[in-house]
């Protein structure tokens, strides 16, 4: 067993934010920020601050010197993590409703997560903690109106935004493999806080105050199993050693469009393993992930477009 100290950044939101849960899904908003969306947002403000050549150095042909997790909720000094995907035999806790909540839970506090990493999860303690993150945020729908440019007819639709409660927000974990990037990435994050993340940033949505902190996790020695805290796109070389029969994971397809020069261009879709996936690699080599090109520089963009799929993983006892 060893204790690992992990650098984190916290987003204290000054307003609500909207991130589509799927393409053009205005009526729903994500409550967290996936790692690929976060990295793209950082690249945007990094480019504004330091220019194209510095951004190309950061991306480094799909080998950026930074690993980051997706953004998860916090409240005060309590940090929440995705529930690792395991075969769980939940005992009878004497409360059918509570048993159902545990079976459907998607988050657990840091203490329970650390226990789960070591294979010693206290289910009763986890069950008690469920109430602590039941009111972290709320989703608010606001009516919007579009006007047809030709007929002038109006159409009403609803636009959702996620609002985090006082003392709550989102945080993510980061590992600087290239230490010289740290100050520049922090500056890009501060600018992102001023600019806002997600839709409607031009009217103040998604703005946040950035705070830096760290957390310490007691975790097992590295073995063959790892839990992903980011979206993860395995490289072709890694898949050879992935033991799917001893892994538990979910997959998501990440695609979408990019606007450039007045055109909307579709990016190639990429399959990712979701946060909380528990992956077994023969030989015990930690997952690394892939940052594939999803749009070549064939449209006058001046650069290819990448999808961030690097793994941010911790060892776990299955």
Task: Describe what you observe in this structure.
Helix content is 21%, strand content 33%. It contains seven helices and 20 strands. The model has no long low-confidence stretch (mean pLDDT 86). The strands form seven sheets. Strands 1, 2, 3, 4, 5, 8 and 9 form a seven-stranded antiparallel sheet that branches. Strands 15-10-20 form a three-stranded antiparallel sheet, with no helix packed on it. The chain starts with a strand and ends with a strand. With 318 residues, the protein is of the alpha+beta class.
Short account of what is shown:
The protein is 21% helix and 33% strand. With 318 residues, the protein is of the alpha+beta class. Strand 6 and strand 7 form a beta hairpin.
List the topology elements.
Layout: E1 2-13, H1 35-50, H2 52-59, E2 66-68, E3 72-75, E4 78-82, H3 96-104, E5 107-109, H4 110-117, H5 123-129, E6 137-147, E7 154-164, E8 168-176, H6 182-195, E9 208-219, E10 225-228, H7 236-239, E11 251-254, E12 257-260, E13 263-266, E14 270-273, E15 278-280, E16 289-290, E17 293-295, E18 305-306, E19 309-310, E20 313-315
Antiparallel strand pairs: 1-8, 1-9, 2-8, 3-4, 3-8, 4-5, 6-7, 10-15, 10-20, 11-14, 12-13, 16-19, 17-18
